[in-house]
Amino acid sequence: MNAVQPIPDDYPRVTPYLHVKGASDAIDFYKDVFDASERGRMNSPNGTVMHAEIEIGSSLIMVADEFPDMDAYAPGHFGGSPVSIHVYVQDADATFAAALAAGATSLNEVADQFYGDRTGTFQDPWGHKWHVSSRFEDISPEELEQRMATQQQPS
């Protein structure tokens, strides 16, 4: 008999778990914006999402509707979320535009950053903040330190 592995092979060590009001719609948003694939879903008898798993690239995110009786709340319950999720994408501008077209709110427009990424930040319609980035320049640690000191933007 094989021993059960405490960390399953097909799960990363750290996995964000998002609670939202309207998980089914949120999952569709993540599919449209990030080309996420749905790995599995368990619905409650009333149709709310008790647990779902989506993959964005090689990353896993768990999603569920909020369940106040279990102290599982969406960001709106707290007036917003202090947590944000960073996603590297092929084209930050295109992903950002797709998010806005799908109902997201721009928090910071996409722009070149001193650390070599083109990054923008949006809030999805369920209150979660997302940073989308595409690397455009590899920077040595020494150069990064100099740029941090002066906030020098790349030319």
Q: Major β-sheet, in short?
A: 4 strands, mixed
What is the strand tally?
A: 8
Give the distance, in angstroms, between the N- and C-terminal Cα atoms: 61 Å
What proportion of the residues is helical, as a percent range? 10-25%
Question: Layout of SSEs?
Answer:
Layout: E1 17-20, H1 23-34, E2 37-43, E3 49-56, E4 59-65, E5 84-88, H2 92-101, E6 105-112, E7 117-123, E8 129-135, H3 141-150
Parallel strand pairs: 1-4, 5-8
Antiparallel strand pairs: 2-3, 3-4, 6-7, 7-8
Protein name: VOC family protein
InterPro entries: Glyas_Bleomycin-R_OHBP_Dase, Glyas_Fos-R_dOase_dom, VOC_core
Pfam families: Glyoxalase
Please describe what this structure looks like.
By secondary structure, this protein is an alpha/beta fold. Helix content is 21%, strand content 34%. It is built from 3 helices and 8 strands. It has helices at 23-34, 92-101, 141-150; strands spanning 17-20, 37-43, 49-56, 59-65, 84-88, 105-112, 117-123, 129-135. A 4-stranded mixed β-sheet has the order 1-4-3-2, with helices on one face. Strands 5-8-7-6 form a 4-stranded mixed β-sheet, with helices on one face. A hairpin with a 5-residue loop joins strand 7 (117-123) and strand 8. Helix 1 (23-34) runs antiparallel to helix 2 (92-101). The protein starts with 16 loop residues before the first strand and ends in a 5-residue tail after the last helix. 26% of the residues are buried. The model has no long low-confidence stretch (mean pLDDT 94). Pfam families: Glyoxalase (PF00903). Residues 10-135 form the VOC domain. InterPro entries: Glyas_Bleomycin-R_OHBP_Dase (IPR029068), Glyas_Fos-R_dOase_dom (IPR004360), VOC_core (IPR037523). It comes from Glycomyces niveus. This is VOC family protein.
